[in-house]
């Protein structure tokens, strides 16, 4: 028997009425920390060391040791214990990073307003034609006039380390024209493109000798580090620390998510959280803004079908929620080719509009102890003048779990209705879903 209930499907079969208690999550023994509160009856201080579930920690420990030996390993473990422990206000969580200046800025402005995104990153390359550089600078002025927050991704030309003075002049000219309109500027992207080992580091470091000047003349512009995909690799981790002059640190580090064609890039959020934890450890060790990072998602591959686009859009929504709720990131961004028309972005438009409609202005409160912590995610949010909200999904097979309050309207990341179970259970699937509490 099935009935409708507040816009969602109600599952009233006998199995749904059977109450199955959620499995107890053992505090923060798993490498993915929960809310900082132990499960009922758990006593972390009295654990038998031989009984601790240390195996889930092993990939993180190995990656931390590989990237920075014992100091980074210890920092990574400290970051792990602090994931999801503090309340976090969700505001301007998602940005769009254009791969090229939009040809029709008016259409892009209308689209950004429709999906509720007010943060934009634009690219500017040193060896671009002057006309294209002017177009980017004009777009920055227009976006700023419309109230958008703007980050500029500056990229040196190939071989720029052999002529660092030209790069310094380029940065200075750009900052003089639009620096006061910028929220941040990323200096380069992917240091592996500049050199293959530490012997090339001194030449690459000359590109950043102008950081003291930029920091002194434009103190309101956050300086973002070149993006890295693997914070467990020793060369890039050392590079980020040694690129800047003594006494200076990055305002934010940038974690690049892997390409979507890779297995771990679409599912396995535990692997994503491991990289996020390593990025947090590197940021804290380098003194970068209390360990905060920014996460950059690559564009969807050319020729994606609707089903693939839905998986990618769901993954961006899931990992945006994880990155911010964990306390590590303060923003995520999706790279987008402006040649892909607005009409061709329907899946992403729906997902991002729903994400902002549900979570803009919300406050993350805790990760709920339910299910298996390595694959089940249920995050609780509070909202002003609205009922509380649960955001949930699983990396495994669909499963029912118990939650702390009754839910009313339920929909997935594309605003489609989701079948409901009687309280205290909800059904988790691989699709992120929003479970609104009853008034």
Task: Tell me how many strands there are.
Answer: 18
What would the average pLDDT be, to the nearest integer? 81
The helix/strand class is alpha/beta
- CA(first)-CA(last) distance: 26 Å
Strand order of the largest sheet: 8-7-6-5-4-11-10-9
Which percent bin holds the helix content?
Answer: 25-40%
Number of helices: 12
Largest sheet, strands/sense/barrel: 8 strands, parallel
Based on CA atoms alone, the radius of gyration comes out at: 23 Å
Name its key features:
single chain; 439 residues; alpha/beta; 6-stranded antiparallel sheet
Give an overview of the whole structure:
It is a single chain. Helices cover 34% and strands 21% of the residues. The protein has an eight-stranded parallel sheet. The protein is built from twelve helices and 18 strands. The protein has helices spanning 14-17, 58-82, 105-115, 130-145, 164-178, 201-205, 211-217, 234-242, 263-266, 269-286, 306-325, 346-359, and strands spanning 2-5, 8-11, 88-89, 94-98, 119-125, 149-155, 184-187, 222-224, 253-256, 293-297, 329-336, 363-367, 376-383, 386-394, 399-402, 407-412, 425-428, 433-437. The longest helix is centred in the first third of the chain and has 25 residues, at 58-82. With 439 residues, it is of the alpha/beta class. Strand 6 (149-155), helix 5 (164-178) and strand 7 form a beta-alpha-beta unit.
